[in-house]
Amino acid sequence: MRERREKILSGTRLRWGLMLCLAVAAFSAVQAAAATEPAAGAALEHLYLTGRVLDNHKEPVADAELQVLVNGEVQPVREGKHREAMDAFTTASDGSYHVVFGLPPGTLETARVELAVYKPSFARLKVPLSFEDMAVRGPDYYHALDIQLERTLGPAFWIATCIFLLAYILISFELLHRTLAAMLGAALMLLISYTLGTLDPDYHILSYERAVHAIDMNVVFLLMGMMIIVGILKNTGVFQWCAYKSYQLARGNVLALSSILMAFTAFASAFLDNVTTMLLLTPVTIEIALSLGISPLALLVPEILASNIGGTATLIGDPPNIMIGSYAGLTFMDFVVNLAPTVVASMVVLFVYSKFAYGGDYARARVEDVPAFIEKLREEYRITDRSLLTVGLIVMGITVAFFLTHGFWHMEVSIAALFGASVLFTYGIATKRVDLLKLIEKDIEWATLLFFIFLFILVGAVEETGLLALISDWVLRLSEGNLVAAICLILWVSAIMSAFVDNIPFTATMLPIVAYLTRVIPGADSGVLWWALAFGACFGGNGTMIGASANVVTLGIAEAAGHPVRFFQFMKVAFLYMVLSVGLANVWLLLFY
Fold it and tell me: Do residues 215 and 326 lie in contact, with contact meaning Cβ atoms separated by under 8 Å?
């Protein structure tokens, strides 16, 4: 994504001579069409127009409508390779346009030629075309022109903003299932665009084509691939077996047991879905805690915190990282190098913090017959399918190897995930170890995938109408263009927001904003603002019981087992640790960037 943006922006630095040469090449096909025009007493002179339409952030404006006016009258033009003349034409996805039109000889020297540009949520603009700025080659004239449009807060802006905020509220406070809320918002925006927007262009929010373009399929396919791999691996009993081995290693030492469980949870969450990891570990953890005579929350809460911390370390560990990596074009190793050291330090802090937070519970643990309980766990939580586990670990190893080297192959991580999933899925079906329909229906979380699809459309709509540009300018003014201020602002705002609202829609909203700030703030080209967003969104999820999906799932299972936790009871322990970990990340970012 970042490479594509850099290529788009580099066009503004081309010299006029190069642009004119490119224009000649771009219109070679149109010249052939123009040559077939019937002569009206004399040969026509042709004007070839090329350039791009940009917004005030120098970002390309797609689907902007342009018209050529000659002495105030609309002039029929030909666009690209189209032979048919048309009154208006639109810009491509990169904001570019290439058109040609013919006029009687001498008209361009004396006539008033203007280029009218319009797009909803932008101010209407008429740009005069000066004869002196045109290059001449025989009877043909060439003009290269980049146009900047200014944003306006029109009806489309306010409608899109209201729908987006309403969907955000429904998602954050769980007033409606998040998939349904995102779907409702996306469908409503498209419906308004094609009803009111058809009657009055000022109400047009985004086109169907732009909505589809806004969906990041790299994120969707990566999540799908990892869901399939984890769904197959969990049939082997490996997660429950790891919990049993943790108890066996601790040998009755509750503090050691808690540390081992946290370390395993963090490691697993770095490479697998942390929700699934907690889903499978929670029942075993509850049983172990009850056997020790302590509250399961004394082990579960540190596991939750470790899950969110560990998921921060890699590109695939947490959905916000997947979204950031795909949008900014960052590699798996970029995340490991820039985030993993702070994650390791945060885990060390968590080991110490858990002793202070739950030391009293650990001290009250009664360990009566450790060998007998270990034997019970060994019988109950054994590996159920060694062959499937062996193949699964080999495939997982190959997939992770591709994750580590995908930058070298110039390959999206979703391709590696889909490859691993398809190979493991094929093996499971061929050996009848996996039920096809059960895995598709139960283990692939279609609701989550659809949520991401509709969320991308929602964010694309508010980006199209200018809300994100407005927020970007506000953050830039607040930070006064200072990198240190921008780092702290993005990090702490992301952390606090992610503690109280779903960090996935928040991250999706912040992506274009951080991309803009990375370009305009001196020193931000190191990518430090992306790491600030990743730390804030992932670490911030530890702040409250609703801050991350893993929190909700784990505490829901605990409550169903008769061990409920109140909102402020969880927050009293978790929020302080969230502040400590975010503060540690802040120090890291300021020292090394």
Answer: no
Q: What is the DSSP letter of 525?
A: G
Element (H, E) at 97: strand 96-103
Which has more pLDDT, 504 or 259?
259
DSSP annotation string for 443-489: IS-HHHHHHHHHHHHHHHHHHHHTHHHHHHHHHHHHHTT-HHHHHHH
Distance between CA atoms of residues 212 and 464, nearest Å:
13
CA gyration radius, the chain = 29
For the segment 235-259, what is each residue's pLDDT rounded down to a tens digit? 898 888 888 888 888 877 889 999 9
| Measured CA distances, 121 to 89, 383, 452, 464 (Å) | 18, 59, 25, 8
**What is the spatial distance between Cα 332 and Cα 417, in angstroms, rounded to a whole number?**
13
299 vs 314: CA distance, rounded Å: 24
- The single-letter DSSP state of residue 128 is E
Tens digits of residue pLDDT in 60-87: 999 999 999 999 999 888 775 555 778 8
0.85 exceeded by the pTM?
no
The residue among 493, 479, 485, 475 whose CA lies nearest residue 590 is 485
Q: Residue 142: which of 50, 30, 37 has the closest Cα?
A: 50
Give how far the C-alpha of residue 528 lies from the chain's centroid of Cα atoms, to the nearest Å. Answer: 17
Q: In terms of C-beta density within 10 A (0-12 exposed, 13-18 middle, 19 or more buried), how is residue 447 classed?
A: exposed
Fill in the DSSP letter of residue 71.
T
Query: Could you tell me which of 582, 572, 583, 558 has the C-alpha nearest to residue 308?
Result: 582
Q: Are strands 73-75 and 113-118 parallel, antiparallel or unpaired?
A: unpaired
For residue 448, give Cα distances in angstroms to 49, 167, 221, 226, 322. 46, 16, 12, 13, 14
Which helix (H) or strand (E) segment holds residue 103: the answer is strand 96-103
Return the closest-CA partner of residue 509 out of 490, 528, 525. 490
Residue 158's CB is within 10 A of a number of other CB atoms, namely 13
Q: In terms of Cα–Cα distance, which of 333, 337, 350, 261 is closest to 299? A: 261
Residue 30's pLDDT is 41
Instruction: Report the 10 Å Cβ neighbour count for 137.
Output: 10
* Pairwise CA distance, residues 467 & 372, whole Å: 62
* Strands 140-144 vs 45-54: parallel, antiparallel or unpaired: parallel
The residues, ordered by sequence, that sit 6+ positions from 592 with a Cβ below 8 Å of its Cβ are none
DSSP run (H or E) holding 68: strand 65-70
Burial of 258 (0-12, 13-18, 19+ CB in 10 A): buried
**What's 441's DSSP letter?**
I
- The closest of 545, 582, 572 to 357, measured between CA atoms, is 572
